[in-house]
Amino acid sequence: MFLSMQTAFAACKQSFAAQQKKVATISKKRVVKSKKRTYRKASARKYSHRELNAIMRILERKFLSEDKTPALRNVVGFGMGSNSIDVALRWNTKEKQLEFRRQIYNSPAIRFEGKLDPIIDNREGVSTYQGISLKAEKPSYPLGTTEIRFTITNHSGEEFVYGEAYSITAQGADGNWFVVPTDCSFTAIGHVLSDGQSGTITAHLFPDILPNKPGVYRFFYEDNIDGNKVLLMATFELRETKSENCRFYGVTL
């Protein structure tokens, strides 16, 4: 696999095997209902290692290019399956899959991994637990913000080790909270905090992939504290600035 589809992404997506089974079932139904044989040919085709490897090389060149379009930035990783090229998207919708095929590469060998977004996550956490606390550096940020820092503080009376994995949710129009596209791979490293020390977790938003909307967001950091699985949560707000509001209505300042 060229780019690893790591733990945080895998945790919120269903197994690709289940997704393939679903696709295969849909393909069979379409073959029965249609006189066309395109679905049968596409699903039955066996790709050689050479063909799949050629697609991998093309995707690698595009991904490593300096000109990162929103479509490329939406790609988390890709790898060679037994008879497919498996692609993981940061924001995985039918529209984004079509965008990938139109702007990056289109082949029947391409298969998209995981559940379709939005993924509902109505969980709530706590801001502090046994002396370990979490908060955003500022309560609010401009709507176009792409990077937000969170402070984790240790007043537990002993050393605390924390990592970098996190998730962020926003509230949809239906009232449900859903996972927004953020970083999907994290360095497996532990940061040690002595009692009384603070550390930083840096989170990223991708408004060029999914536009930020005004409102309150939830930031989650999950860890094991004294043998208990704890979900720490901090909230922050994205606010529309005057210039952003004018751009929205087509006014140039």
TrEMBL record:
What protein am I looking at?
Bacterial Ig-like domain-containing protein
Show where the Bacterial Ig-like domain sits: 130-220
Note the superkingdom of the native organism. Answer: Bacteria
**One Pfam family name from the record?**
Big_14
